[in-house]
Amino acid sequence: MELQEPAASAPCWGCGRNIGPQDAYCRYCGKGQGDNVPWYYGHVGIIAMTVLGLGPFSLGYVWKSPRLSRAAKWVYTVLILGFTWFMIAALFRLWAAINAALTGGLAGYGL
Ligand SMILES: [Zn+2]
Fold it and tell me: How far is the centre of ligand 1, averaged over its atoms, from the C-alpha of 39 (Å)?
């Protein structure tokens, strides 16, 4: 006999299996539902993670998040890629400036 799923059910955003609409946490994968979705899938969490360290890797959370609309996901994708590009360009300029300073400094000593 096959295990019956609840008559009134909603799919879990994490694993896609049917759970009860009142369930606070998925009974299969344990992910919080509704108000119990982890904070890092919300707007503040995604922005904080991107800026404070994850950079482009926060895109994984953006696209998995049940809290963001499809349009918001695209907006975040563009912003995160832009931010990543900005950081790479800034690091490159910093490296070029240090390099120039070192080379110029040594040349100043006749080396
Ligand atoms: Zn689940």
Answer: 17
Q: pTM score, two decimals? A: 0.68
Centre of ligand 1 to C-alpha 71, Å, is 24
* Distance from Cα 92 to the centre of ligand 1, integer Å: 42
In tens, the pLDDT along 24-52 reads 999 999 999 988 999 999 999 999 999 99
- Distance (Å, whole) CA 4 – CA 64: 28
- 47 CA to middle of ligand 1, Å? 25
Please count the helices (runs of H) and the strands (runs of E) in the chain.
Answer: 3, 2
Residue with tokens 């040349």: 107
CA proximity to 24, closest of 13, 37, 14, 42: 37
